[in-house]
Amino acid sequence: MAARSHTDDLRLAHVLADDADSLTMERFRAQDLHVSTKPDATLVTDADVGVEHGVRRTLGRARPRDAVLGEEAGSSGFGPRRWVVDPIDGTHNFVRGVPVWATLIALMEGDDVVVGCVSAPALARRWWASAGGGSWTGKSLLNAKPCRVSDIKEVGDASFSYSDLGGWDHIGRLDAIVALTRRCWRSRAYGDFWSHVMVAEGTVDIAAEPKLALHDMAALAVIVAEAGGRFSGLDGRAGPLRGNALSTNGHLHDAAMAFVGHFPDDDGDGGQDDGGSLHELGARRRGPGDGSGGSSG
Q: Where are the alpha helices (DSSP H) in 70-191?
């Protein structure tokens, strides 16, 4: 199920996810859960810190030459291979007792994501992928089924998942998001990792978020791409390096870009807030490398 060159790394990602699941489930809904606020006003719990510490400790033994980037402790090490870790994606849900949260683990070689694993133990779900090895969901490497995006080709037939509206308002795209929800057959704010793994599974067709960090996206990018979809920034450039995300089944990517496309270097925020035309994208909206399925290709 995995390309030969990344089989061992994918197995290690599962080991890391297993260890993370044990800790997060022990702390989920714990009466003595410690919660604090970081300088960026986001929440962090003792579970976030504990998971990342455990991942770093294991990687230090198993992959001592690899660099690590984590949400809580930042970057360490040097080299072309870098593990990217979000110990709990959906910390606010975790704190409130909502079971939609996950540990995200990815391996990057340069700018390409070659392994991704998303483990959501409170949902009893896991998703993973490796470059050239396909996208999978199940309980383990030996008990899995392939993920494949949907074949929906019209926006009017699509299911769209988005994040909270405040972030879209902040970048001046709230009207565009509202327009897209009205055009789609169905829209729901599943949010966080959940939106994008559902794109990979084919249960959602379009997912978009206005502001993300690399640790929020790296694992998701390869899972969506290996399932046959496309993962890009809101500027249309493939991969998880743009600070925001649009994932689709591929058929709907350009159509979705006509609504949510965001080009902060443009004068006046890029215009077209009403998302009214699917034919005015132009070369400026496609960006280099946009013809590929994602950074992991």
A: 91-96, 165-170, 174-183
- Compute φ and ψ for 160, nearest 5 degrees: -120, 130
Q: What is the pLDDT of residues 260-279, one digit of tens each?
A: 998 776 534 433 333 433 33
- Please indicate, yes or no, whether residues 166 and 139 belong to a single structural domain of this protein: no
The domain total for the chain is: 2
- 169 and 270 share one domain: yes
Residues 104-134: pLDDT tens digits? 999 999 999 999 999 999 999 999 999 999 9
The domain in which residue 186 lies consists of: 155-286
Phi, psi of 136 (to 5 degrees): -140, 155
Predicted structure pTM score: 0.87
pLDDT digits (tens, 9 = 90+) for 141-197: 888 999 999 999 999 999 999 988 999 999 999 999 999 999 999 999 998 999 999
Name the region of 218 (left: φ>0; alpha: ψ -120 to 50; beta: rest): alpha
For the chain, give percent helix, strand, coil, nearest 5. 35, 25, 40
* Chosen domain end from 146, 163, 197: 146
CATH of the domain at 8: 3.30.540.10
